[in-house]
Each structure stands twice: as C-alpha cells, then as structure tokens.
C-alpha cells in the first residue's frame, strides 16, 4: 500500500524512535546495530546493492539519503561506534574545490557526509536559482571515485550523501526569498547585509538558515567550508558561536586554475572570452596583497593598484570590438576586518584583514560562429567572487 508523504514521515519517525529505544535497551543484536544494517530498511539507496561488493576495499561505500529520519538514525549508529562525522555542505555541480573539502574532512573524520541541495532561500527573486547548474549523476560519480581513493589510502570515507527535497528542508512551505520574507530564518546583522549581502539581500539569511538545518540534521563534529566564499565562512563561524553549536568550523584554501581563477560551479557559464577576462579579479586582489606585503597598511595605499587594474582592464575591453570583448562590472573591492567584514581604513597588524571583491561578467556581445561560449551561449550573467586573507603580522 502506498503511504502519503506525511504518513510516510510519521512512520519513519516512529520507526526511528523504536530503533533508538531498542538500541538504548540493548535489545538489538550487535550485528544489526551496525550503521548499515540499521538503515537498510529505510528509503536510502546504495551506489552498490550487493553486500559482497560493498565489503570490498574499493567498493561503492556511499549511501544516498533523501529524508531526515533515516539519516539521523545512521548518524546515531555512527555515534554508538565512536565514529566522527565531517560535514561538507554543497549545492552540487561539484568540482575540484569541493573535492578538496571532502579530502580535508576525510583526513580528520571516520565518515564524511556531503550534502547536495540548491537552497532556494539564498537566491533573491531575480537571481539565478532556475539556471543554477545541476549535475547529479556526475556529482555521484566524482564522489564515488574520491571515496575509492580515500578507501585505498586508509582515510575516512564518504559514507553519506544527503540530497533532500525542498519539502524536506522547509517543512512549513513555501520557502520565501522575498524581503522581509515569511518563514523561520536565522539572520546575522549587520554582517549578513554587507558586501555580498548588499548585492544579494537574502543570501546570508538563506545560507545561515539552511546551514542551521543541515547542522541539526547531520550533527557533525566538524563542518568544512571553502575560503573562496570568505564572507560565508565568517557567517558560519558566527552561527556556530552565537547559537552554541557543538562543532568545529574548518576553512579550506581556495582551489584555483593555473592562472589563478578560483574554481566555481558557475564558471561553466563563462565560455572562453569571459573566462579570460574574468581573471581580472584575482589579478587585482594580488596587486593589493603585494602592497600589504610591502608594508603598506592604509586603505588607500593597499587598494589603489587593485582598483586601477580593474579600471584599466575594463577600458581595454571597452575599446575592443564587440565581437571580441567581454564587459564586466566591478561590484566591490573591499578591505575588511576578518571577524566583522566591516571596512577598515587602516589594517591592524595584530588582526590582519580580508581583501575581497566581486565582479559581474555581462552577457557576451556578438557571439561568433564556433566560439566556445559556455553553457547558456554566453548570455547568462556570471557573478565571480574572490578574496585573499592578509595574515596578522607577528
Ligand atoms: N574553488 C574553491 N575552493 C575551495 N572551496 C570551494 C571552492 N569553490 C567552492 N568551494 C566551497 O564549496 C562549498 C560549496 O560551494 P558551492 O556548492 O556553492 O560551490 P561554488 O563553486 O562556490 O558555486 P558557486 O558558483 O555557487 O559559487 C562552499 O563551502 C564553497 O566555499
Ligand atoms: C553553504 C551552502 C551549501 C548553503 O546552501 C552554499 O551557500 C554553498 O554551496 O556555498
Ligand atoms: N557558493 C555560494 C553559493 C551561492 O552563490 O549561492
């Protein structure tokens, strides 16, 4: 008999409670208390369905979860075995940057949970939610390959992928992306309204809210975030501190292309012309960093070469033929305090600072026959962000 979705959820909750009670009262035999045995009855999917194959060293090891109850059950069973969980939240469309987070998580934990969920509440009403890249099968394949590699290296394994629906993540529907927004949200003010938050007003409300949910569901010992999204890392650290969340936050260095462009899921929309021009941001930030390394501490001294480089590159593009150029808008170049992301006039040597920037790559003009234009034919505007940490000086 098919159950309706709320009946299924209640059944799952009852099942979970029953199992936990049995485990507490020691009524579940040892073999059945293994994480795998416990979740096999739930609606999870293995990358391999054969138990014999799963036990081989390079066998598919990762379970896919779409619902909260079975994942919680699995998490609790890991706890009973003194295993630790490192959580890597993502929006999918995985690339080497994401894999680097997983590798770091596997080096410090017995089990890595990767979440794949394109969270609607962090996208404003006019942002690119609808066109955000979705590459589910390729993502699973990448995680599977990485898990095999981790298995042979004797590291922690990618034991769970959590890919919930929006109904699961937002039980009180619908999720709202409007300002001020109706729903249950976590917000950090003014931190979430600065820089990225100024251009994407609901972004950090959505990020903090969905991460709070993911943290509550997965109960990890450690959470892993990329340095590329620096303001997001500050928001997450604040979330963990202000809400007394019992987990450590790890920040992993930005993975880059050889020329310095930060890897990003949205890069697939750039195409060759915009990709070549998009390097302007990382170049500009490097110029400002060089000033800091040369002993400059005032805002003007540090930032002017970055702003100058942006202006000069833009001018260069504007004087090219429309069929060759890639125009962009600089949203901001910032020099900010590492804990508050508020702009600073002078860098305090004991605190250091964050150099960051955002540019919007505009749709390409006069696309050419045979030109590599990226997904969307070069017509989807692409927001690029990047940053450099200016370390405190001893
Ligand atoms: N180049 C990178 N190096 C290190 N971490 C990264 C990199 N790109 C993304 N991450 C991290 O991966 C996690 C998931 O990010 P997300 O799925 O949004 O990918 P993304 O590449 O940042 O996509 P987007 O195009 O939305 O910026 C975040 O913690 C993010 O900071
Ligand atoms: C942290 C995150 C997964 C929340 O949706 C997202 O903002 C991201 O991928 O950086
Ligand atoms: N990596 C941040 C997710 C976003 O841009 O929505």
TrEMBL record:
Keyword Transferase among record annotations: yes
Q: Which reaction does it catalyse?
A: (R)-pantoate + beta-alanine + ATP = (R)-pantothenate + AMP + diphosphate + H(+)
Please list the GO biological process terms of this entry: pantothenate biosynthetic process
User: What's the Enzyme Commission number for this chain?
Assistant: 6.3.2.1
Q: Which domain of life is it from?
A: Eukaryota
Which key words tag this protein in UniProt? ATP-binding, Ligase, Nucleotide-binding, Pantothenate biosynthesis, Transferase
Q: What pathway is it annotated to? A: Cofactor biosynthesis; (R)-pantothenate biosynthesis; (R)-pantothenate from (R)-pantoate and beta-alanine: step 1/1
Tell me one GO molecular function of this protein.
Answer: ATP binding
- Kindly indicate where the leader peptide sits in this chain: none
Family, as annotated: Belongs to the pantothenate synthetase family.
What is this protein called in UniProt?
Answer: Pantoate--beta-alanine ligase
